[in-house]
Amino acid sequence: MPFSPLADPSLPEGLGGVYLGGGYPELYAEALSANQGMRLALRRFKGPIYAECGGLMYLGQALQTDEGLFPMVGLIPGVSRMTPRLALGYRTVEALKDSPLAQRGWQARGHEFHFSERPAIPPAAWRVLESGALEGYAKGRLLASYIHLYFPSEPRLAERLVAQAAQHGEE
């Protein structure tokens, strides 16, 4: 079910899971922050949530841009800050723990492309195999990361997320 964190006042009824893809939340920070109904709905949502890059930034406590500090959803500790430095490259990651998306030890490929940074706050979602760095955030029903996953590199990721969402939708 499609929905807009910018325009919709809440999540759609009957939603089993949430997938927040990448984007440019810094361009819409004021509007995202102003949509308090959606922010509250995401905090209250009990199903699985997967967010990548811009979705990770949106789920954090706040987003710091040149225009100011904007409160975001608050599901993930820490503030994302825009920087002039580009983080770019292909990554191979390994899941550090079970989550709505992965089981511990599963590996997948993806890429990073962002002009922001945020503090590494445990529990981390992934270990980046190329560098050993810890990446993302995984706790309970939530997994969020700067990595844009390439699902064909590990099809079980999408299968697991859909199964978890279907299970929540039946509850």
UniProtKB/TrEMBL annotation:
SUPFAM superfamilies, sorted: Class I glutamine amidotransferase-like
Catalytic class of the enzyme: ligase
Pfam assignment, any one: GATase_3
Chain ranges of the CobB/CobQ-like glutamine amidotransferase domain: 3-153
GO MF term list: cobyrinic acid a,c-diamide synthase activity
Membrane as UniProt keyword: no
Entry superkingdom: Bacteria
EC number annotated for this UniProt entry: 6.3.5.11
Keywords, alphabetical: Glutamine amidotransferase, Ligase
Protein name (record): Cobyrinate a,c-diamide synthase
